[in-house]
Design the sequence.
């Protein structure tokens, strides 16, 4: 559904139906009125990125790896968490501590994806170590 554009500290994401409309995965750091409008774009980009993570997790679950647990946190649209404790990934109108915890949850799921990929590669190569990247 989305296309990532890795550009170092200035990465962007776009919807596949509108690839020219890029959303920035970075902020300006300024505290002026424009932050409200750029913040909405950043929030949209973060939601799109979280949906990319959710799509990767869905793929990983379809190609199961033995002895690998479930991802630690569940993703639902723009929220991530466990059980009833789902946190929004949006920065705007959110408390800094809550947003930071939501990002921590996302990074934990990304770490789980890294473990899945490593195990998947080992299975594909018959137990041999994958070639260095």
Sequence:
């Amino acid at each position: 559904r989305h296309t990532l554009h890795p550009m170092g500290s200035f990465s962007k994401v776009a919807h596949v139906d509108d690839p020219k409309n890029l959303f920035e995965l970075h902020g300006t750091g300024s505290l002026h009125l424009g932050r409200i409008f750029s913040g909405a774009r950043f929030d949209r980009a973060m939601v799109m990125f979280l949906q990319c993570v959710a799509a990767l997790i869905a793929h990983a679950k379809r190609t199961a790896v033995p002895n690998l647990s479930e991802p630690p946190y569940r993703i639902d649209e723009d929220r991530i968490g466990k059980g009833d404790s789902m946190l929004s990934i949006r920065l705007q109108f959110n408390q800094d501590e809550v947003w930071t915890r939501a990002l921590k949850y996302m990074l934990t799921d990304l770490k789980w994806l890294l473990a899945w990929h490593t195990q998947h590669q080992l299975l594909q190569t018959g137990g041999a170590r994958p070639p260095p990247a």
Remarks:
- The chain has a mean pLDDT of 88.
- Residues 71 and 109 are 6 Å apart (CA to CA).
